[in-house]
Write a structure and sequence with these properties.
single chain, alpha+beta, Gyrase A, domain 2, 2 domains, four-stranded antiparallel beta sheet, two-stranded parallel ribbon
Length: 210
């Protein structure tokens, strides 16, 4: 049995030039409505996007995109995929056989909030689930059948691609609001803080609630 922490990796935009490209695409698209392309300069996107956000013209922000890879647990991933305006690719327990050498012949888990990884109760529960899963595979069951005994804290990898408008919505619900699940906030707040630092014109939406 292996235990890992949640994490995120921004796959795109990667560089300041990438972020600027997305902002320029937003401005270019947004100015179509006003036929004001002649006003585009090297820095005009800043005032234009601030104006767009101030007027709550969120549709214009849909022309900027970000792709992120998350390591989290199955329970949290089930909440992530509820966001409709995203593209998702997720580690499949139908096809991944965790008894193989590729996966170290073990199941990986993410420690839930409020649990101590040294907690005998939580560790024993995970170990029993892992044992049942491996026993089913040895007995001839397929991975998609054996996965039925795995708990929500089983680790998963998921890639999420969405436009900037949807990411703002995700951050509002999953990072800024204290009503979000504690493990969701533990995953999303670091991403929100990074985006806020990398691209404040889009993602400076205030401090997470405490």
């Amino acid at each position: 049995m292996k235990i890992v922490e949640q994490l995120h990796v921004i796959l795109y935009p990667l560089t300041p030039e990438d972020w600027l490209r997305e902002l320029k695409l937003i401005e270019d698209a947004g100015r179509t409505a006003y036929l004001s392309d002649d006003k585009i300069t090297a820095t005009s996107h800043e005032a234009f996007i601030k104006m767009i956000i101030g007027r709550d013209h969120g549709a214009v922000l849909e022309f900027g995109d970000m792709q992120v890879c998350f390591i989290t647990d199955r329970g949290i991933s089930h909440e992530i995929v509820r966001h409709r305006l995203c593209s998702f690719i997720q580690e499949s327990t139908r096809y991944c056989n965790y008894s193989s050498d590729k996966f170290g012949n073990e199941v990986t888990f993410v420690e839930p909030s409020g649990c101590d990884r040294n907690s005998e109760l939580w560790r024993n529960s995970c170990e029993r689930a892992e044992g049942a899963y491996l026993d089913m595979l040895k007995a001839g069951y397929t991975p998609q059948q054996a996965r039925a005994v795995l708990p929500n804290c089983t680790k998963t990898k998921i890639q999420v691609k969405a436009n900037f408008r949807e990411w703002r919505h995700i951050f509002k619900l999953r990072a800024i609001s204290k009503a979000a699940h504690p493990d969701m906030r533990r995953l999303m707040i670091p991403l929100y803080q990074q985006c806020r630092e990398e691209c404040p014109i889009i993602f400076d939406m205030g401090e997470p609630e405490v």
